[in-house]
Amino acid sequence: MVRFRVYEGLSNIYPKAERYKNAKKLIDKFNRKLKNGWDPFEDDKDIIYEDSIAYEFIAKKSGRKRKGNLTLNFYCSEFLNKLKYNIAGTTYQTYQSKLRLFNIFLEKKKIAENHVSYFDNKAAQGFIDYLFNEKKISNKTVNAYKELLKRVFAELIKSKKIAQNPFEDIQKYRTTTKPSKYFKPGTLELIKNKIKKTNTQLWLMCQFEFYTFIRPRELRFLKIGDLNLNDGVINVRAEISKNRKNQTVLIPRQFLNELIKLELNKYPDDYFLFSIKKHPAQKCVSKNYFWREFDKIRNELGISREYKLYSFKHTGAIMATKAGINLKDLQIQLRHHSLEMVDKYLKDMIGDESEDIRNKFPEL
Questions:
Q1: Count of other CB atoms within 10 angstroms of residue 63
Q2: Which residue in 71, 63, 75, 67 sits closest to 47, CA to CA?
């Protein structure tokens, strides 16, 4: 055991009454810290750890190994390192980005080097206010930050580093989810003709969205070997699929004929279908390439920003439903886990549809 002496505000230069007042503040402060799990024997302990939060260019310049005491930066990095190989790459990057902004906030408030037990409910609310007031982040995204940090602190409670979760009592903010709109016939023709004339690779991406419902991120990493044009199917590999499972989707006849014309079999199986060379190659397109290209064309045409690249998937699903395709078949092609999920997906875009209400309603 080591005795810790604290003289802050207790010097004889202060009047006796003020020294007692300062002593009470110190006692309250250290009691609160101890109840929150603070360990004075760890407070100044230097450790070397892998910083998973630092920006890439900083990490390359100064290295990822950092020396420090048991701060929130350390525990956030530890949290990320544990998850790294158990979650999708994009999810990891999202977590990393959020925890990086959290660390920037701690730096701004000059509490980044404090022991983890210093961070209380008041500080947690301060971070939420920072997201709203300074970063102008939406309710939905703020909720995502809150849930992530709640998980980080839950791990600290589990390992007995702290006693209370500072994000436990932060309210969940109301959100309204509005999917991108599906294309009405006139708008569809307008944007379809423009894309076909200006960007053939983007048009191929839109066709994949419309006919196969494969997500843009999955399509970005799709390889020639994933296409089986003989059987008319596409294999969505586990490492690129959203739910981390190998899945198969059918290629509708009209689209299969288009793919056969492209003579994709002349490229090696390990080539990416969508590349920076505008044809299959060893390097795929950048993360936001197709979104930017679509947005540019949409804006040139003066079409509402409610239409997004995902609108081609929604349009395909709506048109397939109206063409009489069985909902179970649609569920399998959408790769939704239940018919209820398909039903909700369709209702979110077109509301409740009833042929009886539309055609058999009595006349007033």
A1: 10
A2: 67
Compute the Cα dihedral for 246, 247, 251, 255 and give only its sign: negative
Task: Give the position of tokens 């925890």.
Answer: 99
Residue 298, both tokens:
């949409």
**Which DSSP string corresponds to 303-335?**
--TT--TTHHHHHHHHHHHHTT--HHHHHHHHT
pLDDT digits (tens, 9 = 90+) for 121-167: 999 999 999 999 998 888 889 999 999 999 999 999 998 888 899 99
Backbone angles phi, psi at 250, to 5 degrees: -85, 150
Domains and CATH numbers, the chain: 36-158 (no CATH), 185-351 (1.10.443.10)
Fill in the DSSP letter of residue 252.
-
pTM above 0.85, yes or no: no
- Pairwise CA distance, residues 320 & 234, whole Å: 19
Angle at 190 between CA 188 and CA 192, to 5 degrees: 65
- Cβ-contact 71, 115 below 8 angstroms: yes
List own/partner pairs for 45-53 with CB under 8 A and 24 or more apart: 45/69, 45/70, 47/74, 49/74, 49/77, 49/78, 50/77, 50/81, 51/77, 52/76, 52/77, 52/80, 52/81, 52/84, 52/96, 53/77, 53/80, 53/96, 53/99, 53/100, 53/103
